[in-house]
Write a structure and sequence with these properties.
Layout: E1 2-7, E2 12-13, E3 20-21, H1 23-40, E4 44-47, H2 60-68, E5 75-78, E6 81-82, H3 88-102, E7 106-111, H4 118-121, H5 129-145, E8 148-151, E9 159-163, E10 175-179, H6 183-192, E11 196-200, H7 209-221, E12 231-239, H8 243-265, H9 272-278, E13 286-288, H10 290-303, E14 309-313, E15 322-325, E16 330-333
Parallel strand pairs: 1-4, 1-14, 4-5, 5-7, 6-7, 7-10, 10-11, 11-12, 12-13, 12-14
Antiparallel strand pairs: 2-3, 8-9, 15-16
Helix pairs in contact: 2-3, 3-5, 6-7
């Protein structure tokens, strides 16, 4: 199984001083993290896409290109690209360019987004939430497979044989489908023979077993080879000296983040008891010592019939800038380096 990290590049505050970390310094820290993840051998690093004030990841391809220029081995991808609100031509061009810069180390994970800000921002009706994604995914795959494209649809002007350039370094740019809990999304990915990235942000991961089985059955019925039907998990977690230490580190920022989302969506405010339950052996959060998390990964992989990739999302507003500790094989808090220049200031479809 390949292990990686995802980041939403959250705006963060140092909990010991109350100091807000400005966007320039936050980006500098992020690029240091990606470079270190490359050095210690993590398989991948993904950047999400949000259009909200608490995140700095609205242009993931640009961030990933900066990371590509300072890394050598780690795969770089989206987590996820909100394809419903984007132009597939530009998405392909951006990630094909990233693939050239990185020397063929790019993965493109596309989804519909768990927040809705992108739709009014780009003038798209939320009522077309699903049809936008279905049509744009169709076009994106056609662009990947054909250099000159003839296509027509409802949500974008037709293409009449135009070429889409540049072409990526990889013979076929990997395109994963990011999904949440919709059976239709799992089945669609299987029918298309696309690898699946499942965002698990609550409940128990084993509850996704029937949906992943649906994905595999749909893929098999469509004639796709089993090895083509890869399954990845995007999960929330943190690796520390112990489960208690990891939980205590992450909880304040998690509570702040989910309290805000709960207010927006009319949910009950989150509690520490809820957090601890979700961090337990069968919960969705991968929290604890390296051994604890490793054992949980193996157990959940078995429950889901095998998992090919796991990406842990661990950033949140309660500032715990993280780095990979090569000596202890875990992620732990660190003190930030001084900025070299003055500072100016789930889930998924």
């Amino acid at each position: 199984m390949h292990i990686g990290v995802d980041s939403f590049v959250a705006a963060v505050t140092d909990p010991t001083t109350g100091e807000a970390i400005g966007p320039q310094q936050r980006m500098a820290h992020l690029l240091e993290e990606i470079a270190l993840a490359d050095q210690v051998g993590l398989y991948s690093f993904g950047i999400g896409e949000h259009h909200r004030p608490e995140y700095y990841d609205s242009a993931p391809a640009i961030i990933l290109a900066a990371a590509a220029a300072r890394t050598e081995r780690i795969r770089l991808g989206s987590a996820v690209t909100v394809l419903s609100a984007a132009d597939p031509v530009r998405v392909f061009q951006q990630f094909a360019t990233l693939d050239l810069i990185s020397g063929g180390r790019t993965d493109l994970v596309v989804g519909r987004g768990s927040f809705t800000e992108a739709f009014p921002l780009f003038g798209l009706p939320l009522s077309d939430y699903d049809s936008l994604f279905t049509e744009k995914l169709e076009l994106l795959l056609k662009i990947r497979d054909e250099e000159k494209v003839t296509w027509s649809g409802q949500h974008r002007p037709a293409l009449t044989g135009q070429g889409v350039y540049p072409r990526p370094a990889q013979a076929e740019l990997p395109i994963w489908v990011g999904v949440g809990g919709s059976p239709e999304s799992f089945a669609r990915a299987g029918l298309l023979g696309l690898p699946l990235m499942v965002a698990i942000i609550g409940g128990e991961p084993r509850q996704f077993a029937p949906l992943i089985d649906l994905y595999r059955r749909a893929g098999a019925q469509a004639g796709h080879a089993p090895e083509k039907l890869q399954v990845g998990l995007h999960v929330f977690g943190y690796v520390g000296e112990s489960t208690e230490a990891a939980s205590d580190t992450i909880y304040p920022g998690w509570h702040e983040m989910f309290t805000k989302v709960s207010r927006e969506r009319g949910f009950r405010q989150p509690t520490r008891a809820q957090f601890d339950a979700t961090s337990g052996p069968d919960g969705a959060f991968f929290m604890g010592s390296p051994q604890t998390v490793a054992e949980k990964i193996r157990r959940i992989s078995d429950q889901l019939g095998g998992v090919d990739r796991l990406s842990i999302q661990m950033t949140n507003p309660g500032w715990r800038t993280t780095t990979c500790c090569a000596a202890s094989s875990c992620w732990a808090p660190r003190s930030p380096p001084r900025s070299p220049t003055p500072e100016p200031g789930h889930p998924v479809g």
